[in-house]
């Protein structure tokens, strides 16, 4: 909105309309306590009438705080990270704080570029799933940081919030075993990905605990995408190992695997049972619905923002929170322990 003179309203215009000094108007808009309620009300009414908006950058330069946070995600196209962003944004809004959101597309160069932008914007802190090899580069930006996701394991001295992968993968393996699937095939990430190592480590420990040789499990590496899961499933089907159950390391790969099963003229779960990991909404609309281990995406985003706002990134270095996962049962897993259930059929090459 513009004033009668044609310029955007300033703090001087607000003060003049409210009949107070410029400093009083500024204190009222900043929420200062050393001002009367009547004066504050006059200023707020004047600002609303003029359509006045505070210059956040100018305020930040004076106060040393911008009222903004940064969030750098590895892949905003993955619905899981969209849910993390939603949780972070909702929590920030509750504290009258804004969030600048970037996607690194798993590129360390882009990640550093985004952090440079956040530094120039004078954000009060950053939440990041780092793809950079070292936090030395990140430290030079001078931003309080909270790590999320599997990258946090590389940086034990930095605060982090994430899902409890040990509990979540263990929950999935226990559920598969209860359904009669003791030796699932696995679709996991590429060998360079830390998340892949974490997932396989828990599976290995579960197998050893239940007297199963982990070496007998079929494993296919894939990108964490629908196409990655589809191609990995095609390779598993081509290996023709009879009864087949698949545990995919994320839901996008699981949905791709379900697509490959249909393309092969097979059915899920009658011919191939599939378990996902993440809990994205798309799994509920697949046919059959995708049974999955849901990671607490929104809570991760909300908790990370809360920690930044509370100053935990600097006050409690190395503090970690692992939030529990939960099982969502739908229709993509056959129950081999139920005599009335139809058994999974042999996979044909």
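^ Assign residues to that structure.
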């Amino acid at each position: 909105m513009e004033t009668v003179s044609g310029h955007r309203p300033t703090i001087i215009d607000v003060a003049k309309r409210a009949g107070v000094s410029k400093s009083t108007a500024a204190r009222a808009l900043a929420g200062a306590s050393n001002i009367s309620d009547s004066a504050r009300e006059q200023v707020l009414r004047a600002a609303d009438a003029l359509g006045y908006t505070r210059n956040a950058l100018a305020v930040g330069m004076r106060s040393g705080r911008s009222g903004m946070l940064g969030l750098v995600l590895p892949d905003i196209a993955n619905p899981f990270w969209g849910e993390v962003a939603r949780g972070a944004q909702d929590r920030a809004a509750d504290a009258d704080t804004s969030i600048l959101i970037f996607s690194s597309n798993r590129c360390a160069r882009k990640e550093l570029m985004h952090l440079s932008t956040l530094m120039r914007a004078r954000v009060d802190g950053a939440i990041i799933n780092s793809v950079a090899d070292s936090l030395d580069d990140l430290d030079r930006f001078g931003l309080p940081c909270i790590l999320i996701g599997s990258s946090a394991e590389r940086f034990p001295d930095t605060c982090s919030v994430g899902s409890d992968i040990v509990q979540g993968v263990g929950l999935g393996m226990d559920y598969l075993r209860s359904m009669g699937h003791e030796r699932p095939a696995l679709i996991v990430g590429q060998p360079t990905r830390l998340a892949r190592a974490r997932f396989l480590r828990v599976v290995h420990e579960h197998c050893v605990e239940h007297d199963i040789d982990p070496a007998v499990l079929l494993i296919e590496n894939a990108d964490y995408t629908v196409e990655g899961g589809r191609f990995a499933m095609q390779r598993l089907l081509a290996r023709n190992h009879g009864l087949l159950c698949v545990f995919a390391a994320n839901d996008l790969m699981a949905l791709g695997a379900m697509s490959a099963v249909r393309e092969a003229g097979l059915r899920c779960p009658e011919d191939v049972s599939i378990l996902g990991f993440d809990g994205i909404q798309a799994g509920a609309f697949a046919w059959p619905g995708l049974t999955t281990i849901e990671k607490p995406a929104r809570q991760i985003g909300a908790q990370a923002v809360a920690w930044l706002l509370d100053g935990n990134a600097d006050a409690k270095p190395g503090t970690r929170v692992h939030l529990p996962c939960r099982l969502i049962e739908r229709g993509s897993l056959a129950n081999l322990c139920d005599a009335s259930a139809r058994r999974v059929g042999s996979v044909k090459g």
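Residues 11-54 form one domain.
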